[in-house]
Specification:
With about 270 residues, this protein is of the alpha/beta class. It is built from eight helices and six strands; from the N terminus they run ααβαααβαβαβββα. Helix 6 crosses helix 8.
Length: about 270
């Protein structure tokens, strides 16, 4: 948390105490007509963290090993973007699988022609850091809910250089009626490790974002794993009942106060 004491030579901002309630860059004070040195250095550090998160390689091998330790299988896949530079400059290639990965899924489908109720995909997206920190605990909760509902699960597909839409191709090739992708979101200056969940019912190649539901900012300082999985389960249940997802499926899940997830009281309320 930011220090409330202004640096020597800096003029304090009257809103300084509000910095204890938000990571946003407010009430920075000033030194003459400029930003204080400390605030400028904090900004540069946060910017460097965001850049590092974008370029951090996806350690899919460690995640695969962690899943194997829990007796859960995974498939290592790659998008059509051959490297990070290509991925950042050609978003379209990150939305499709490489030829080798597509063939691997087709072979898997031949051995599992009945398909699955739910496919789970994990992709680095724009922050592998978010995946490294948050994917495994989210996977555990999603798999627990799916098991309780009696849904069959595909092996977890780990996609390097992947974007959100790649999940549709993964699920279509696996013959899954639903898919959820856990993906690193674009880093912010106060959130380089934010994980996004995107859910699609009846996935197939070519769907737009209008057919997906998004749950964002899943991380320790944002939306908790328990609350994110609670909202996702609601969406999946309703999608199965109504056979749709996206803009026609609203997140109307009741938000109970879950153990360990109580939010701080809004300072604006009496």
């Amino acid at each position: 948390m930011a220090d409330d004491t202004p640096a020597q030579g800096a003029t304090a901002n009257p809103w300084q105490q509000l910095r204890n309630l938000t990571p946003a860059r407010i009430a920075l004070g000033r030194a003459g007509t400029s930003m204080p040195t400390g605030a400028q250095l904090d900004f540069q550090f946060a910017h460097a963290q965001a850049r590092d998160a974008v370029h951090l390689p996806f350690d899919h091998a460690s995640l695969s090993a962690a899943l194997a330790h829990k007796q859960q299988s995974s498939l290592l896949l790659h998008s059509a973007a051959k490297d990070r530079d290509t991925y950042l400059q050609r978003p379209d290639l990150g939305r499709r699988l490489s030829q080798a990965s597509a063939e691997l899924l087709d072979q898997h489908r031949e051995n599992n022609p009945e398909g699955y109720d739910l496919a789970i995909v994990v992709a680095d997206g724009l922050s592998a850091l978010a995946v490294h920190r948050n994917a495994l605990p989210m996977l555990e909760r999603i798999q627990e809910h799916a098991s309780a509902e009696g849904w069959s699960l595909s092996p977890v597909a780990l996609v390097t250089q992947g974007r959100v839409a790649v999940a549709d191709e993964v699920a279509e090739r696996l013959g899954a009626r639903m898919v959820v992708i856990l993906i690193g979101e674009r880093p912010g200056l106060s959130s380089p490790d934010s994980l996004g969940l995107y859910f699609t019912y009846a996935p197939k190649v070519g769907l737009t974002d209008a057919y997906r539901n998004c749950i964002s900012n899943v991380r320790l300082e944002g939306l908790s794993y328990a609350m994110a999985s609670h909202r996702l389960l609601y969406l999946m249940r309703e999608a199965c009942r109504r056979q749709l997802s996206g803009v026609n499926l609203k997140d109307e899940a009741e938000m109970p106060v879950l153990a360990g997830d109580a939010s701080p009281r809004n300072f604006l309320l009496s």
